[in-house]
Amino acid sequence: MNVFDCTLCVATTISQFLLDEVMKEVSLHGGFKHVVRCHGNPQEDFMDVKQSGEPIVLLIANKAGREALKFLCDDYHLPKEQRRVRWIHSISSGLDSYKLNELVKELQDIPLTNARGCYSSILAEHVMYSMLYFYRQTWRSLASRAEHKWDPFLMVELRGRKVGIIGYGDIGQASAKLLSAFGMEVTGVRRSAPTKEVDEYGVRLVHGDAERERVLRESDFVVNILPGTEETKRFFNKELFSMMKPSAVYISIGRGITQNEDDLACALRDGVIRGASVDVFEREPLPAESPLWDISDDKLLLTAHSADRTVYSVFFSLAFFCFWWNANEMPPRQLCCRFFFFFLHMAFVFYKWEFVLFIITSFLIIFIEQPFFFFFLLSAVLRVCLYPNQVKFIFKVNYERV
Known about the structure:
45% of the residues lie in helices and 13% in strands.
């Protein structure tokens, strides 16, 4: 199969702005014959592609992704080489929301990848934000300002506080980096026995029910990053909340299915725990009748599963998606060129040292494949024209560093 013969079907319910960026990046760097976007109904939007017989690469996220899977992967009875969908990539880090266990037949022999690791640092920032929200009493400052009231009050520092991370994986490790910088004591609870007692971030690693209970009882912050499985369904319930300190803050950024939301609401109302920061829920959007809506701001920080929704995280996921897809068939020279081109394009958007990378790598691109160098040069010139203030700021920062 030639990489350029495939059609990319994008089925996602992410925001319009991010979706536009997704379409732009994959059209430019993906090497696809066509890029087709779902506008809400996969059955209608992908019908022509399905009937065309062209091989399909499916880029999915959220509810639209599951509907697209069911619609496009219904030819599972055919031999592998005759099936229309050749690869499925999820923009999100998890795959449990698609209920893939119900699509075992449809998905057999289809490569399935996700963006694991792309969102770790962003979610770690949300963990820190949640902690500071409660210990710096952000809601109180906002209320005072709304009332035009000067209200100096005592705050609490994070240094020395104990953090228990339940489900210590890549997100937990990224969080540990930031937590350690704040001088906090971190314990990571893992499903399997760790090979060492303390990892490179200074986190004490434990496993087992007894150790988990001890961590829950001692921690000032309990961070739930459990995966969504049958074993972890509503794992955090009334019993576990009652184990925590009355001053503890519960932070949930893993999977909404892992907590009993009614028990959490009761724990917050009754003062069993001090507060909670919840970004994921069992049902999304959160139903209007959920008791969590009525919890006061000083006890609950509620966000609409948006902790990982940043432009950078989506681009980072797409960078590897396009690179590894192209790696399937492209000659090494062209593949290397595309990798440099995409990386520099990303750097130009997000970083302040892109001009240094541009100069160094441009010489490499000239020797690899000359046409792509001119294409990148044109892109750089256009960005300079469109964002002159950004360019001035970049040069200013570089000058001050020298």
